Fold:
Amino acid sequence: MANENRWANLVNTAFLLDQMPRTSGPEGLQSALTMIQSALEVFPSTLDPVEDFEGYAVRRFLLALLDSLSHQQG
Structure:
C-alpha cells in the first residue's frame, strides 16, 4: 500500500472513531478495538524502523493502545 493511502486510512479511521456513538461498556470498547485492529492492517509487522520510522511509530502506538484498551475490556 502506498504511503499516501495508509495515511488517508489512518485519518479516515480517526474520523470514524470520533463519529462512533459513545456507548459505555464492552460494546462500545469492542467497536474501538476493531477499528484499531483495522488500522494495524495498513501498518504491518514487516515495517522496518530504519526504512519507515513514521509507519513503525504509528504501528507501535496502535499496538500499545490496543493492548491497553484490551486489558480494560477484561
Q: What stands out?
A: The mean pLDDT is 87.
